Amino acid sequence: MGGGNIMGGGNIMGGDDIMGGGDIMAVDDIIAAGDIMGGGNIMGGGDIIAAGDTMAVDDIRAVGDIMGGGNIMGGGDIIAAGDIMAVDDIRAVGDIMGGGNIMGGDDIMGGGNIMGGGNIMGGGNIMGGGDIIAAGDIMAVDDIRAVGDIMGGGNIMGGDDIMGGGNIMGGGNIMGGGNIMGGGDIIAAGDIMAVDDIRAVCDIL
User: Fold this and answer.
1) Which superkingdom is the protein from (predicted)?
2) What are phi and psi for residue 69, nearest 5 degrees?
3) Are 173 and 154 in contact (CB under 8 A)?
């Protein structure tokens, strides 16, 4: 535990928790057998991995993966060049951006954009204050909701409602267990199916 910053020129590894009142920064990996908690930013030049929760008052950023056995929560952005994966929630006041997959065992919620270079998959809801965009599939057990666009290079599937303030576009199928509603177009290369209503302000193709 540090009352100020914790900074390492290589790896920072803890057999239990790693906690800093300020920033936690490593040139390489940050790995904890417990929680990683920072009063500022948590930044790793490699991976950031915690068996428990990873929480920062500001940003959480990794050149590699960000992986948590609990929640991953940032008061700013959560950004990784690789995957972002949590057993529980992934939540950011700002953007959530992963160069690979973004996967949460429960909710994935960003106050800004949620963008993944692979799949975006949530065991609960996926909700973005901006756009939700994935190069692969976008899948949630519950709702998928975005203030902006919802765009997937593969399938877009929600166990309940799929709602976008802008366009909803899928390179595969768009399927919702409730309503599918878009503030712009709803366009799929495959099927568009909903248990309830399908509504768009513009085209449904």
Assistant:
1) Eukaryota
2) -80, -5
3) no
How many domains is the chain partitioned into structurally?
1
What CA–CA distance (Å, rounded) separates 100 from 114?
12
Residue 4 CA neighbour count, 13 Å, CB half:
1
Is 203 contained in some domain?
no
Q: pLDDT per residue over 76-127, tens digit each?
A: 999 999 999 999 999 999 999 999 999 999 999 999 999 999 999 999 999 9
Q: Would 184 be classed as within a structural domain?
A: no
- 139's CB contacts (< 8 A; 6+ apart) are 119, 120, 121, 122, 155, 156, 157, 158
Does residue 43 belong to any structural domain of this protein?
Answer: yes
Burial, 48: exposed, middle or buried (Cβ in 10 Å; 0-12, 13-18, 19+)?
buried
On whether the pTM is more than 0.85, the answer is: yes
128 lies in a domain? no
Q: Give the Cα separation of 80 and 97 in Å (integer).
A: 6
